[in-house]
Specification:
Blueprint (H helix, E strand, L loop, with lengths): L1 H30 L7 H4 L9 E3 L5 E3 L2 E8 L17 E4 L5 E12 L9 E6 L3 E6 L5 H10 L3 E9 L7
Antiparallel strand pairs: 1-3, 2-3, 3-4, 4-5, 5-7, 5-8, 6-7
Pfam families: ORF_2_N (PF18492)
Organism: Thalassolituus pacificus
Keywords: Signal
């Protein structure tokens, strides 16, 4: 009987110590404050846009906002690419406070099951939407205009990412 009581007390003591150790480890892990976002690490991904201005001759709607491409005020586009909209290109909203990058995708509202666009991969969302993903060399303004002219397309919008990715 004494051994049973000793074993029970010992098991309770071991369980209590283990539980307290786990709580302390969790407390230490939660009490460590994250590294503050400083000017140095918050601007690592930012680009120098001082020599860029919005080309208001081209206006596209994305997410309910009107965007124009940011073009260099000193030079022209890189050789090999004609003037237009390409994946990764910087865009600026009309309010001039919002900027973003073209993702290379166009969201299309349509009732057909497939659009079969050459050079684009299709991802279907629900019964009405298809996301078309294009490669880097595709001129997206022309692709967008051609999609909008199709009778089986209700609407089409160029996707512009305005959120900056900050790894955790």
């Amino acid at each position: 009987m004494k051994n049973m009581i000793k074993n029970a007390v010992f098991a309770t003591l071991v369980f209590t110590c283990t539980a307290q150790a786990e709580v302390k480890v969790q407390y230490l892990a939660m009490s460590k404050s994250p590294e503050p976002l400083t000017e140095k690490n918050s601007t690592v991904q930012a680009q120098d846009n001082s020599n860029l201005q919005a080309d208001t001759n081209i206006v596209v709607v994305s997410g309910g906002k009107r965007f124009s491409p940011l073009v260099s005020s000193v030079g022209t586009m890189s050789s090999g690419q004609k003037t237009g909209l390409y994946k990764g290109q910087l865009m600026q909203a009309e309010n001039k406070r919002t900027t973003g990058k073209i993702t290379g995708a166009i969201m299309v509202k349509t009732s057909v099951t497939a659009l079969n666009i050459q050079g684009a991969s299709e991802t279907r969302f629900g019964s009405d939407y298809i996301l078309l993903s294009f490669d880097d060399s595709t001129e997206l303004l022309t692709a967008l205009e051609q999609l909008k002219k199709r009778s089986d397309v209700e609407s089409a919008e160029l996707e512009i990412n305005t959120k900056r990715y900050v790894p955790k």
